[in-house]
Each structure stands twice: as C-alpha cells, then as structure tokens.
Amino acid sequence: MSEQNDSQYTLLNSISLPSDLRALPMEQLPQVCDELRRKIIDEVAGNPGHFASSLGVVELTVALHYVYDTPYDRLLWDVGHQAYGHKILTGRREQFHTNRHFHGIRPFPSPAESEYDAFTAGHASNSISAALGMALAARAHGEKRHVVAVIGDGAMSGGLAYEGLNNAANTPNDVLIILNDNNMSIDHSVGGMKHLLHHLLTNPTYNHLRYRASNKLMSIGWMNEHRKRILLRFSNSVKSLLTRQQNVFEGMDIRYFGPADGHDVIGLVRTLRAIKDMSGPKLLHIHTVKGHGFKPAEHGGALWHAPGKFDPHTGELIRSDETGLPPKFQDVFGHTLLELAGQNEKIVGVTPAMPSGCSLSIMMKAMPQRAFDVGIAEGHAVTFSAGMAKDGLLPFCNIYSSFAQRAYDNIIHDVAISRLNVVLCLDRAGLVGEDGPTHHGAFDLAYLRSIPNMTVASPMDEIELRHLMYSAQLPEQGPYAIRYPRGRGSQPDWRQPMHAIPKGQGRRLKEGRDLAVLTIGPIGMTAVQAIRSYERVHQGVSIAHYDMRFLKPLDERLLTEVAATFRRIITIEDGTRVGGLGTAVLEWMSDHGCAPAVRRLGLPDSFVEHGSPAELYHLCGLDAEGIERAIGECVPGV
Fold first, then answer.
1. Options 290, 328, 486, 600, the catalytic residue
2. What is the DSSP string of 529-586?
3. Is 406 a catalytic residue?
4. Does 290 participate in catalysis according to the annotation?
5. What angle do CA 113, 115, 117 make, to 5 degrees?
6. Which of 250, 378, 462, 628 is catalytic?
7. Is 549 one of the annotated active-site residues of the chain?
8. pTM (predicted TM-score)
9. pLDDT digits (tens, 9 = 90+) for 394-441
C-alpha cells in the first residue's frame, strides 16, 4: 500500500490491538469506523474475499472491542465472513493484505491464528451453542468473563441456532447474543414506543432499580428461579402489549433489547455498556445494511458478498476475459437441471441458501414454482427433499460438499433407509482453495460410501456430469449422490446429448501393461496429463487408466480385470484417503483374495490449509507433477 493511501488511516494506524482502541475518547470512534471501512474496501478491492458482510458490521465491531475486554472476554462471530474488521483491529492490520493467501491470514476466525478469535467460524449457526459452553466453563472456573455471540447474515435460519437458544433459555448464564439483522424480517420497528422501550430497558437507573427489587424479594425468601421466570414472562408480556409485538426470544424467556441502529457506533457503545453486566441471557437486535458505506454493495445483493476484484472508487467490477473458456461445473449443473426439468415434470430443485453459488438460480428464474431456497438449513433441505420424493416428486438437492456434513443424519434416516430418489448434488467437492479447511469438500466420498442404499458418483468432466444427472432422474434409482468441484472444467463443447450410465459402470480410458491408475472424478483429467508426461519421458512404459465413475457400487468387472492383469495399482481421488476410493479398492481386493500392491493418492488425514487450488493440490501431491512422481515410484524396473 502506498504512503499516500496509508496516510488516510491516521487513527487506525495507531491501533495495533483493542487496548489501543479503548484508549481513545468515544467521540473519535466514528472516525475509526470510517477508516476501518475504507481499509476493508481498499484491501478487498485488490485481494478478493468476502466483502459486504464485514462492511455491514464495522460499527458493531468497533463498539464491541471498545466495550469488552477482549481477548479475555469472548467474542464469537457467526458467520465468519463478518470478521474482517475484527481481524484488522486485533493485531493483523499489517498482515491483512495476505488474507486468504497461501500461508497468509486465514479466511475465517481461527483460534490457531489469534487469541482474539474465540472460536472457529467457517460455517453458520454455531455461535450461540459455543458461547453458552464458554459461559458455563467460565462459571465453573469462577471467572467473571463476558461472552458475546454475534449472529447474522441468515445464520438464524439454521436449526442449531435455535437449539442453542433453547438451551440458553433454560441454563443459568449471562451470554449476550447480538442479532445482526440485515433484512431478515425478524422484527419491525414501528413508531416511537419501540425506541422509548429500548432506552428504558437499557437505562442504568431502570435496571439498577430492577436489580434491587429482585434482590429484596430474594432476601425475604419470595424470589426463586420459578418465580423469577414468571416475572420475566410478565415483563415480556407487558412490553408486548405496549408495542403490540412479540418475538420468539421473549417467548423463550431471553431478555430482548432493540431493535437498535447498527450503524450508530456511539449509540451501540452506550447500549452495550448498559446491558453488559445484566444477569441472565440477553439478546440485542440491531439493524444493519449489508455493504454499508459503499453504495454499489448496499444495493448489489448477493453480487457483493464476494465480488472478486473491483475499483474501490467507482465500484466497477474487474472481470477477466472468459471468452472460449470451459464453463464452471456449477453452471453446467444449473443449465442441465433446467433442461431435465423441462423433460421431467417431477423434477424440483432445492438449495440451502446458495442459489447463485450453485446456479440453481437458473431454474429459479425460469421455473420459480419448482425451485426452493430453504435458507441456511442443510438438514431441513435434505428432509424437505425426502418428503417431496416420498410423494412422487424428484428433488435435486444441491448442497456444498462440506455443508452437507451437517445433514448426514438426515441423509441416512430420511433418505437412505426409505430408498427415496433424492439426488444429492454436492458442489465444491475437493479442495476449494482460499476458503480453507472449513470449506474443503474432503470427506464426502468417505462419509457417503458407508451408507447403505446410496449411489455415489463423481464425473470426470462436465459432459459426464450431464450423463450422471440424466441417469439419476431415471425411475427406481434410489438415493443418488453426484459430487463435483468448484470452478471450471475442461470441455468448452459440453452441451452434448445426454445418455444413461448404468449404475456402477466405470470405463477403461487407456490400455496398459505396467501399471493401472484408477481415478474417480475430475482428478482423472490431471492423471491423464501425468500419464502422458511420464510415458513421453520413459519410452516403452505402458500405463493403463480407468475412470471408476462410481465409488458405490464399485465396478467389479473392471476391478476383476485390473486384479488379473496388474501387480501394481495407483488409486487417485481428491477426497480424504481414509475411507475413500483407495480404501474401497483395497477392501475389494482383500475380500476377493487378490494381492496387488496398491498405492493410494488422496487428501491427507489432516486439515488442509487455505491457498489457491493449484498451490494446495501441489502441497498434497495431487497435481500432475505429484502424480507423475508417484507413477515413477510404482512402475516396476524403472
């Protein structure tokens, strides 16, 4: 960053840690917010990442670190893409330009990176549960630690959030939940009474009198937990009567404050100070605008969630020339699903809050009555799909691979046991890149393979994706999972006529005599490059290549051929080596009395860090260079 640009951060540059922020007079906080917002805009414009969410909570971020003694007090972000301002204020300002880079700052809060990151936050809806656990741990240790959970960006649509709320309402704790409402329509601010009550209920005098009255009743033996709950219900009922409104939080006996202006940093500081030491679970409801302070992002909807590079002054997006490039896998899915839905009236589409990312938006636009966004609720998405399948529809349920982990029980109990024809389309399989370990689709092959009645497939390219989608919607297919990666494929001419692929049928792509390479999914294209390169250098060596297509059921005909022909085998997959294709092949060979030497290539039994996909596949030995090296180590006599 140039000195000219850096000079605009006169206050921000003086803040290395939140303790520096707390040393400033409160009147300077609006300027800190302006500089912090500009810093995020300048950095993300050239180093793409999540954008609008962090802009929307700048004032809240500053207010929280100003009022609370972080990192002793715990601050949990849900979801993690709200936390860029938090990172900048907590010792990572100078390193923020490395955000999402290989070996740079992590894309989401992580305790392994900073003590200010109280909890890992890559996915949504976990903050309340984790905060409650931390509050009870502090109580057990006799510590006076405050715990704050910031939940927003649709995370309240996840069922885990309500499980946490239910437990928080029935467990002694002092957790503060901040609901960052950026157009979730949980509540409506009407008239002056709402604001009057907000100031009343956060007024120190009011709460001091309330506290003294409560202690007096306890001292004479009248107040106990049961009666305290009755009084809280009565208080909430009076407030609901006066405002002619009620909300789910007060119905759960959680003290509710708000809605407050989430972009008034001075007002937020005063409110947080007023409620900071109140006993019992509390919820502060704030209204914010996603992308606040950058006009294009305020009105740009999903586009500015993670926009890529843009001009920080004009907001003009900087797009590379994509002419002639192969399409993205997700776009092939979206167009193919619409094509199939036009042929099969039973087909419907379902996604948990990712219609643009997974391209279900294509069907939503053309057939809005047959495509459903259910919010951040993966378990519900699967069971909702199961209900439709039970009564004759054919749902294609598209979930990002790592997000589908939260629906594992639903896949087993609500789909697989009843053999319902739900097509699980698992986008973002394999290493997704800069979003890191919380988003890598590393485990889908392994966790789906163990489920009875499941078909588990992965296409080598976009044309194969179309064939598998066509096959999955044919009658009597049962539970069917298709996993494919993020990003571009390899086939510009992908709009080929679709045909059925029999369940469990792989294919031999290349004959050979010295070594058999078995792949599943798009990693097979990388294997093709490695095999060609190796044979070009080592004349006379002949390597066979099999695209298994299906992990479950395995193509036993191909495996019988491989076992009878080759003494050495390499299996390659872009999922964990534990329990995936390599494990399945080893088990099959053992069960059938075959004993070839099997070398398994796949993701390690560890969480892979963030970086570009090319960097990460090289790190894991799954790029063409790594596969070629493994081939050289396995070819006999070379």
1. 290
2. HHHHHHHHHSTT--EEEEE--EEES--HHHHHHHHHH-SEEEEEEEEESTTSHHHHHH
3. yes
4. yes
5. 70
6. 378
7. no
8. 0.87
9. 999 999 999 999 999 999 999 999 999 999 999 999 999 999 999 999
